[in-house]
Design goal:
Layout lengths: L1 E2 L1 H4 L3 H7 L2 H8 L4 H4 L6 H7 L4 H15 L5 E2 L17 H26 L5 H30 L8 H26 L2 H33 L2 H18 L2 H16 L1
Parallel strand pairs: 1-2
Bound molecules: fe (ii) ion (2 copies).
């Protein structure tokens, strides 16, 4: 018997580089490490982060072992589970709030191709529209929503954890595209604006999927009931502080959907 510990403690990208077929196996289990872009997570954490049930975990690890040691019987530790797993994700109230905010962000993302088509940086009307779009990105998707993520939820976790680093890295990338969008408006450069709006609209859907399906459920499993309660009351405070602003953003999206779709 030989242990796979040495591989369990390697970054998943490194393991995939050595054994490319493992990426396909992970894909079959809906663990898209290849598409993640970071692949920093250790192989041993993949099971915990993606919340596989015990049978799926055994199946996955057996298949991976077979690739790494085709001729040997391998033993591997099965993770202890504290809470039962189920297919349908049940979010705690604060996580549910953030998932719901993603819905409005996704409606905006769906509008971006039409916004790019119709954008006009030469007219006052055109400028009003694009500036409202940027305002939605900066003040709803970033300040209001990311305030709940970065300033409140992440503080309960070590920000050096791979799973958090991946998400924070996306936020940094998104912000750099927004900065370039503002420059493009200033320079009246339609192509530059389209380029960065497109890049933004490509990062965000994957980012939201990672949060909805991986990060938030993982956080829920790792927060205590007291911490979840504190988080929820903090979120309510943030909502009160922002007052009518989220409603204004919702109205903007609804109006745009009527005009552009
Ligand atoms: Fe985020
Ligand atoms: Fe988010």
């Amino acid at each position: 018997m030989e242990s796979v510990d040495i591989y369990l403690n390697k970054g998943v990208k490194e393991v995939i580089t050595e054994f490319p077929v493992i990426e396909k196996i992970l894909d079959e289990f809906n663990i898209g490490c290849g598409a993640c872009g970071e692949g920093l997570c250790l192989l041993k954490d993949i099971v915990e982060i993606h919340n596989l049930d015990e049978d799926r975990e055994k199946e996955l690890m057996a298949r991976i072992s077979k690739v790494i040691y085709p001729d040997k019987e391998i033993s591997f530790p099965v993770k202890k589970r504290t809470k039962p797993t189920s297919k349908e994700i049940k979010y705690s109230p604060p996580m549910k709030k953030m998932v719901d905010e993603h819905v409005l962000i996704k409606r905006w993302l769906a509008l971006i191709p039409k916004v790019i088509e119709s954008v006009n940086l030469e007219t006052e009307e055109g400028l009003i529209l694009i500036n409202k779009g940027i305002d939605f990105i900066r003040n709803y998707a970033d300040k209001y929503h990311h305030a709940k993520e970065e300033d409140e939820t992440f503080k309960y976790f070590d920000n050096n954890l791979d799973i958090i680093k991946v998400i924070l890295n996306d936020h940094v990338n998104v912000r750099s595209h927004v900065k370039a969008m503002l420059e493009a408006i200033e320079e009246k450069d339609k192509d530059k604006l389209a380029e960065h709006l497109t890049a933004y609209s490509e990062i965000l859907p994957k980012h939201i999927k990672k949060e909805d399906e991986i990060l938030y459920p993982w956080m829920d499993r790792n927060l205590t009931t007291t911490q979840i309660g504190k988080l929820y009351s903090k979120f309510n405070e943030i909502d009160t502080e922002y007052g009518e602003a989220p409603i204004k953003h919702l109205k903007f999206i609804e109006k745009l959907e009527k005009e552009l779709v």
